[in-house]
Amino acid sequence: MSGGRRAGARTVLARGVAGAGRTLGLPVVLLAVWWVASADSTNIFLPPLRAIVEAFGQVWLSDTFVRDVVPSLWRLGVGYAAALVVGVGVGYVVGRWSVVRALTGPILAYFRVLPAPVMIPVLLVAVGIGDATKLIVIAMGALWPILLNTADGVRAVDDVQLETAAAYRLPAWTRHRLILRAATPQIFAGARQALGISIIVMVVSEMLMSTDGLGFTVIRFQRTFAIPQMWSGVLLLGALGFVLAKLFELVERRALRWHRGATGREESR
Fold first, then answer.
1. Start and end of every ABC transmembrane type-1 domain (predicted)?
2. Model pTM?
């Protein structure tokens, strides 16, 4: 029995190592190529990767992380969470009732193509330059993928499920839960898109109207010609986006385990 457990542990470890290799293999290779190709660079705007890594340690492994990265993550989390709550709620109503869908169709078609950063001048006048404006911009950018995917997912729920729930006279709240559960894969698809948009909008808003945060720090380095430090901020943004995407993937995998089982698409790793 203990031998079987050890064999199972080795299998899990081997899968973990293989998964890490697939995930990190190409980025490591690209960084190695960048390191070698830029080693002798004398271009002030394209410094050697060695100098960028040194600047990374000096800038971000200090109190700058708490002063600039933590506020950015807080804004990202609050804005994204607000978009998730509003997007799922409104998307459910739009997808569930055709009358609401017909009434809101033109408005949704208009706002879905309106870039969130274009609202920054309006919000600066109406709300001010504080965190509230940044949170609203982030939430607006992330809202539409979640709302529209939720509405599509709710509309696509199999009529047989709805008829079965009605035949069994299930309570209204239970029926709503069943519909939301069936739409969960589509909701997660929209939430995944919204996460990337939230990061982009967060950086843009901090570049234009902030005195702290990652976007502000990167643009400050650019304006003072601290080029290696600027590139270190770009690398940090990419790393944070990568980590957040992987964390989202873990949550999605666990939340949609039932869906993979129902469709026969079991996890391969």
1. 87-255
2. 0.84
Of the candidates 169, 193, 200, 165, the residue with the CA atom closest to the CA atom of residue 179: 165
Under-50 pLDDT residues of the chain: 1, 267-269
Give tens-digit pLDDT for 220-251: 999 999 999 999 999 999 999 999 999 999 99
Query: Do residues 244 and 173 touch, judged by C-beta distance below 8 A?
Result: no
The tens digit of pLDDT for each residue in 177-188 reads 888 888 899 999
Could you tell me which residues come within 8 angstroms of residue 48 by beta carbon, excluding any fewer than 6 positions away?
A: 35, 38, 39, 40, 41
Q: What is the spatial distance between Cα 95 and Cα 183, in angstroms, rounded to a whole number?
A: 10
DSSP 68: I
Domains of the chain: 63-263 (1.10.3720.10)
